[in-house]
Write a structure and sequence with these properties.
Length: 968
């Protein structure tokens, strides 16, 4: 799920990290969509090697979208998933590997969050159904027209997107078909290896991907310059990408657009919320139709290479008492972000990312490093002595943070109240004589001044009465009467963090312990520190323990971290994850019992069940100082796994064969087409097996696999389709795969000893990618030559502006300050553009049929219209010929040099004639006297423009005088 608001904060603080994807959309030819060939070069200017898909970030929006009508059935959902993968593949166009990872069984630390989300989703769905029914009945009682209700069976329970459900089993089979279809038919897929890690393989999708990358880069033949692209919307993917220390790591995600239109759940139309619905038209009520939506959302690249550049500047610490290593400082920054929030621990009360918590932590960190004399982390291991120093510093400012937060909330509410009162006042103004009147209205045949005055007096009295009512003079008013929202109905905050004694109130309210129980506070803080160590190791080394979890709903205060130095950071080894069906019983509410085996479902609702307390129907959501329910804390009981397993044990024998299959621990599957280099090797494994194929499959005989940067073990697979065979489509309406040529095997990552440490460092041979951000130590000439990079790679394309653009700029630029001497457009002389602007101004070519003196004289005559000074936009060269701004490509020029001193050029005509002929004609200048055979020009060493010259803002001039009078 990631860290709320983290990506928004990061994109605002480091804007150059974001780049829009260049996507070649399909074209419509006679009603048939023709898709681009993904085997062609990538239009983004870079060729990527590996594309990793965190599939849950694709499955959820495709099955229950928030901004468009949901699919009618599971078949439409599967097609939507296929189309989304196709679109991502055409954007990225990986050349070596496509890795699809579906969330499997998560560690126990994550299961608690999954349990909370699924219980809340079930509760919110039920409340929404009841609210829709209430609104529909009220509207129908008023005679409103409404479309037919959606059938109950059409409702899609998103909780089924959990390992072990029939839906996830079908999704795996559909992706198996989809991969075969694309490898057999799409030319862009043919040389790509595809790995599918479905829901039967334990681990979260993004962490299965990270584990694969860690294990591959630890191999001796790994290419350290591999181009990685990871698709996912979770903010923690940014930290995971940085933790790999790979030089070329990019994240692709859908661009977030706030306030996207959503259909009303009552009438299905856009433009209003459910509580504002008034029904629809009689014609629309006959049949339920879905509204038309806009274009598809676009995708963006998040360039972690650029983020590394930003952080490298921000984490500079001069005069350290030890050697500076940016890779180590980067790991410490990732660790700091865990305090703000993650999927496994609640964030500290004093740290809110919207309040600049990351910046505050970085400032404290840079201050404390000089005291700790070393880094906080090392390849996933935490130095608690140094963490203690940072927590001490944060604890000292904790009180001030709470007081400032409270004052900011008061100020915000006051501003919002003032805005709403202003809106009410504007409404009252419409009833008075000061109301704005429409000009140019229709004339009245007969006007009665007395009647008009009486209407004004009557409107004024109504306004006074309304204002008295809004001001609550003499009687209590409701919030809706004045159009204002009251804050009195907000939940009472009994903790009051901004007042003295907040710690005692916090632990008494949230943990239900005595105020003076200091030992309990210490115990919570130690568990939180162990959680930080577990999370960091999870990000850098993999899951340290499948059983560990933070056993509280709330976090301690930073000032409660006392004497954490001696805490053990070791975790129980040899732990195993839950099996898929067991996890369902650990995270599902009773309302989702249709997705679990029938013998187990009664344990969730039977009042005599030994684990009935695990499945409360109603539960409290503590807002914990937040405004919205989704930000609150769901107070659910933690699942005791020993009790759960004991209750399930008698019912294992009642499982069906399909349920037993869904409950096993599976393997990844590897698919290759004939054009892949490993194809012959994998095909030979099946051919050599012969009659022993079934035995080799059951015994999981392993074969060493190595091909193009992918190492591991492969095993023969029972669901492999024979060469030349066919694979039926599990989706209605899609054609079967005929004449199959794809080989499928089971795959396992390279294995390492339990105590192996994956080093968090840059690999030997890694090439640093080109810098994107502007260096701070450029010389004056380098500063002029520097241009910002737009896109994934630098482009040689030069921006151009023609005459119409210059005129528009001259018209729109403010006529004050440095542009104050630019006259309005109506004062300009209406000359031919080559004559009115002249060679000394915008660089336009003079009319070839006119002489230099004629064009120059007219230019001199038009000085009243285009006179300029040296500081405004235009041809601003100083008296030494150095460019100041715009490189005399705009309006006007230096009057003293070009207007009053033109005699100086005339007097030196003979001196410059030869030089102008040799140095300018055919290069940057074309003679302005070609009509009279003259070769006059500016001296090359003084006024010549050069193609490579650039202005101080990094914009390349590259201006040439062309025969068509166009500036380039």
């Amino acid at each position: 799920m990631g860290v709320p608001a983290f990506f928004r904060w990061l994109s605002r603080k480091y804007p150059s990290v974001i780049v829009e994807c260049i996507e070649q959309r399909p074209t419509d030819v006679d009603g048939q969509l023709v898709y681009v060939d993904s085997s062609l070069p990538n239009p983004n200017g870079i060729e990527f090697d590996n594309l990793y898909l965190d599939m849950n970030g694709i499955i959820h929006p495709c099955t229950h979208p928030e901004d468009k009508p949901p699919p009618k059935d599971e078949d439409e959902m599967m097609v939507a998933i296929f189309e989304c993968i196709d679109r991502l593949f055409r954007i990225v166009r990986p050349r070596k590997l496509l890795y699809m990872a579906i969330d499997g069984v998560a560690p126990r630390a994550k299961m608690n969050q999954q349990r909370s989300r699924r219980f809340r989703a079930s509760k919110e769905t039920q409340e929404k159904i009841e609210e829709v029914a209430r609104i529909r009945s009220e509207l129908q009682a008023k005679g409103a027209y409404l479309p037919p209700e959606r059938p109950k069976e059409a409702h899609f329970d998103s909780n089924c997107i959990t390992p072990g459900t029939p839906f996830m089993d079908r999704l795996s089979k559909c992706l198996h078909y989809y991969i075969h279809d694309r490898l057999n038919s799409d030319p862009g897929w043919k040389g790509v290896k595809v790995i599918l890690s479905d829901a039967n393989v334990p681990g979260e999708g993004e962490h299965k991907i990270m584990d694969y990358i860690r294990r591959q880069r630890a191999q001796p033949d790994h290419d350290p310059n591999t181009q990685h692209v990871l698709c996912g919307a979770d903010a923690d993917l940014i930290m995971l990408g940085l933790a790999t220390h790979e030089p070329n790591f990019t994240i692709i995600r859908e661009e977030f657009k706030p306030n996207k239109p959503r259909p009303c759940d009552v009438c299905g139309q856009l433009g209003h919320e459910m509580k504002e619905c008034t029904g629809t038209t009689p014609d629309a009520a006959l049949v339920r139709s879905d509204p038309a939506f806009g274009n598809q959302d676009s995708f963006i690249f998040v360039r972690l290479t650029v983020l590394r550049e930003y952080l490298e500047k921000e984490l500079q610490m001069p005069n350290l008492p030890f050697n500076y290593d940016f890779e180590r400082a980067l790991d410490d920054w990732v660790f700091m972000c865990f305090f703000v929030g993650n999927d496994f621990l609640p964030h500290l009360p004093s740290l809110e990312i919207r309040e600049g918590a990351v910046d505050r932590l970085v400032t404290l960190y840079k201050k404390c490093v000089y005291k700790t004399k070393g880094w906080i982390t090392d390849s996933g291991d935490v130095n608690l002595d140094r963490v203690q120093v940072i927590m001490d510093e944060l604890g000292r400012v904790e009180d001030e943070i709470f007081r400032r937060r409270h004052q900011n909330e008061i100020n915000f509410k006051a501003r919002e109240k003032a805005k709403k009162q202003q809106k009410v006042n504007f409404g009252l103004l419409e009833r008075t004589q000061f109301a704005p009147q429409r000009l140019g209205g229709a004339s009245k045949a007969v006007e009665n001044p007395r009647q008009e005055a009486a209407e004004i007096r009557r409107a004024g009295m109504q306004a006074v009465a309304a204002q008295e009512q809004a001001d609550n003079r003499g009687r209590k008013r409701s919030a809706t009467q004045a159009g204002l929202d009251e804050d009195d109905d907000e939940a009472h905050d009994e903790v009051r963090l901004w007042e003295e004694g907040f710690k005692e109130r916090y632990y008494e309210s949230k943990f239900e312990v005595a105020r003076d129980n200091l030992e309990f506070r210490y115990r919570v803080a130690l568990q939180y520190v162990r959680g930080l160590c577990w999370v960091l190791r999870y990000y850098y080394q993999g899951c340290a323990s499948w059983k560990w979890y933070f056993p509280y709903h709330y976090a301690p205060f930073a000032s409660d971290f006392v004497n954490v130095q001696g805490l053990s950071t070791n975790f129980e080894k040899g732990t195993q994850p839950f099996r898929p069906l067991e996890q369902l019983m650990g995270v599902f509410p009773a309302a989702s019992s249709q997705h679990v085996p029938q013998p187990w479902a009664k344990l969730m609702s039977d009042p005599f069940s030994p684990i009935i307390d695990f499945y409360p129907i109603d539960f409290k959501i503590d807002l914990n100082g937040k405004k919205f329910a989704w930000q609150g804390v769901a107070l659910l009981p933690f699942v005791d796994e020993s009790r759960l397993f004991k209750a399930l044990e008698p019912y294992y024998k009642e499982l069906t064969q399909a349920e037993i299959y869904r409950n096993i621990k599976g393997h990844d599957r590897l698919y290759v087409a004939p054009s892949n280099k490993s194809y012959d090797f994998l095909l030979a494994l099946y051919q050599d097996a012969g009659s022993e194929l079934r035995q080799l499959i059951d015994s999981e005989q392993r074969y060493t696999f190595r091909c193009e940067g992918v190492r591991g073990d492969v095993m023969l697979s029972a669901d492999s389709v024979c060469i030349g065979g066919q694979l039926a489509s599990p989706v209605v309406g899609l054609k079967p795969v005929l004449g199959n040529q794809v080989v499928c095997v089971r795959y396992q990552d390279p294995q390492y000893p339990d105590d192996f440490i994956f080093p968090a460092r840059r690999l030997h041979g890694a090439t640093e990618p080109p810098r994107v951000l502007k260096p701070g130590n450029l010389s004056q000439q380098e500063n002029r030559n520097w241009r910002p990079q737009i896109g994934m790679v630098r482009s040689n394309t030069v921006a151009s502006l023609e005459a119409a653009g210059h005129r528009m700029l001259g018209h729109q630029l403010p006529r004050s300050g440095s542009y104050s001497n630019v006259p309005p457009p109506q004062h300009q002389h209406q000359h031919n553009r080559s004559q009115s602007f002249g060679p000394h101004r915008s660089g336009y070519v003079a009319n070839q049929s006119q002489g230099y003196s004629q064009g120059y004289d007219r230019n001199h005559q038009s000085q009243s219209g285009y006179g300029s000074n040296q500081d405004r936009y235009g041809s601003n060269q100083d008296r030494q010929g150095n460019q100041r701004y715009g490189s005399n490509q705009g309006y006007g020029s230096n009057q003293d040099r070009h207007g009053q001193n033109h005699g100086r050029y005339n007097s030196n005509q003979d001196r410059y004639q030869n030089q102008g002929h040799q140095g300018h004609q055919g290069q940057n200048y074309r003679s302005y006297n070609q009509g009279q055979g003259s070769n006059q020009g500016y001296p090359q060493n003084k006024y010549q423009r050069n193609d490579q010259a650039r202005d101080v803002h990094g914009q390349r001039q590259n201006s040439r005088y062309q025969g068509n009078s166009t500036w380039r």
